Amino acid sequence: MDKKVIRTVFSLFLVIFLLLFSYTTTVFFIEKTPSQQQTIDYLYGRGELPSDYTALEKSHLEDVKNVMKYTDYLFYISLAIITLLLTYFRKDKQELHHLLWIGSMSTMVSVALILLLALLFFDQLFTAFHLLFFPQGNWTFPYNSLLIRTFPLQFFMKIGRMIFMEALGIGVIVFLISRRMKQLKS
């Protein structure tokens, strides 16, 4: 297979993997209220949904649970592809360097762009995200609903910043590793 195609595939799946890895670790480590924790536990299949939610909120959370399930699949697929490519090229240090360099550059540029857009246009991105993943339209609730009070917009803004900053930081680390590999090769 053409090395450009391999490098493109690696870069794409590295960006996806690092974003989803950052998402997973951020959700795990972010400070949460007991209500947020109970709801997140439900979304991960580790508990029951609080009964205080309305039928519409429960319906939306069930949809969120499904999106999270497919997100997990994508996480593991991207991990498998990255692992396979790194393993395949483990003895070809020059190609390994190229994969890590291009992958890290793709990650840093993509994540920095998303972060910038999120900082400037968070409301629009939040709406676009929901329109994409919840096209049935059951994602809007009154400001006084339990779901909105449990997960206010500020929660998503904070978690979004943390996810993108972590992914950007890991992208920088991968870039530094690729630079170190080039120095050791010389």
> Unreliable runs, pLDDT <50, ≥5 residues?
none
Shape: elongated
Helix content: over 70%
Structural class: mainly alpha
Summarize the structure.
This protein is mostly helical.
Which key phrases capture this entry?
0% strand; mainly alpha; single chain
Structure description:
By secondary structure, this protein is mainly α. It has one domain. Helix content is 81%, strand content 0%. It contains six helices and no strands. It has helices spanning 3-29, 34-43, 55-88, 93-133, 146-150, 153-185. Helix 4 packs antiparallel against helix 6. It is elongated. It starts with a helix and ends with a helix. The mean pLDDT is 94.
Secondary structure: elements and pairs:
Layout: H1 3-29, H2 34-43, H3 55-88, H4 93-133, H5 146-150, H6 153-185
Helix pairs in contact: 1-3, 1-4, 1-6, 4-6
